[in-house]
C-alpha cells in the first residue's frame, strides 16, 4: 500500500462525507475511503475517535485498539495491502457521533496542517514505520485495561495518534515527539493499570 502522505483536514473531510451519506459509518467504509492514503490515516482515524467523547463509550477504545493493532501488525510484516476481518469491517458508529467528533477536531486539524511539514524525514523512512508500528502494538495492548479508568485509554491513544500523524504527514519531528510520548504513555498506563 502506498503511503503518500495526507493532510489531517482531508481525513476529517472524508469521515464527514461518510457520515453525511450513511446512517452509520462502518469500519469497512473508513478503510475503503482512506485506504489509498497508506496506513497512517487508518491508524490516525480510530485513535482520534478514542480521544473524543466517543472514547467514553464502553468497549469502543478496545475495539479501536484492535483495529489499530491489526493495521500496525501489517506494517511490521511489511505488507503493502490491507487485510481486515469481515466482522471488524461491519462494526459501525452512528453518523451523528462521527459528525460531532469531526467538528470537535476541525480546529486542531487546521492547526496541525498549518504546522506540519517535511522535517527530519529520515525518521519517516524505512525502518522507522515498522519500529513505530511495533511500539503502537504495545500501546494497543494497554488500552483494554486502561478502560477501567474513565477516559484513561485516551493516553495511549493520544501517543498513537501523534505517531500516526507523523506517518500521515511525513514529519520526522512529529515522529520523534510521538516516540517520546509513546514511552511516557507506556510508563503511565502501565503504572495505572497493572
Which residues sit in consecutive blocks of at least 5 with pLDDT less than 50? Answer: 1-5
From N to C, what is the helix and strand string? HEHHHHEHHHH
Helical fraction equals 55-70%
Compute the CA-based radius of gyration.
Answer: 15 Å
**Mean of pLDDT:** 86
How large is the share of residues in beta strands? under 5%
Structurally, how many domains make up the residues? 1
- Structure summary, number of beta strands: 2
Structural class: mainly alpha
Largest sheet: 2 strands, antiparallel
Distance between the termini: 36 Å
- Number of helical elements: 9
**What is the overall silhouette?**
globular
- What order do the strands of the largest sheet run in, or round the barrel if closed? 1-2
Search tags:
two-stranded antiparallel ribbon; disordered N terminus; mainly alpha
Quick take:
With 194 residues, the chain is mainly alpha-helical. It has 9 helices and 2 strands.
Amino acid at each position: 500500500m502506498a503511503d503518500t502522505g495526507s493532510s489531517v483536514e482531508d481525513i476529517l473531510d472524508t469521515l464527514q462525507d461518510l457520515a453525511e451519506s450513511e446512517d452509520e459509518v462502518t469500519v469497512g467504509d473508513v478503510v475503503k475511503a482512506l485506504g489509498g492514503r497508506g496506513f497512517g490515516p487508518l491508524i490516525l482515524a480510530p485513535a482520534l475517535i478514542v480521544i473524543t467523547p466517543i472514547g467514553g463509550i464502553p468497549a469502543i477504545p478496545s475495539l479501536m485498539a484492535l483495529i489499530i493493532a491489526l493495521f500496525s501488525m501489517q506494517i511490521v510484516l511489511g505488507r503493502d495491502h490491507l487485510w481486515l476481518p469481515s466482522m471488524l469491517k461491519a462494526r459501525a458508529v452512528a453518523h451523528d457521533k462521527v459528525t460531532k467528533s469531526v467538528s470537535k477536531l476541525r480546529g486542531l486539524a487546521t492547526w496541525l496542517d498549518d504546522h506540519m511539514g517535511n522535517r527530519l524525514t529520515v525518521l519517516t523512512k524505512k525502518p522507522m514505520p515498522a519500529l513505530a508500528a511495533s511500539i503502537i502494538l504495545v500501546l494497543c495492548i494497554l488500552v483494554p485495561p486502561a478502560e477501567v479508568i474513565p477516559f484513561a485509554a485516551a493516553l495511549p491513544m493520544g501517543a498513537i495518534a501523534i505517531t500516526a500523524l507523523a506517518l500521515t504527514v511525513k514529519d520526522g519531528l512529529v515522529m520523534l515527539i510521538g516516540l517520546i510520548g509513546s514511552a511516557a504513555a507506556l510508563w503511565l498506563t502501565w503504572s495505572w493499570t497493572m
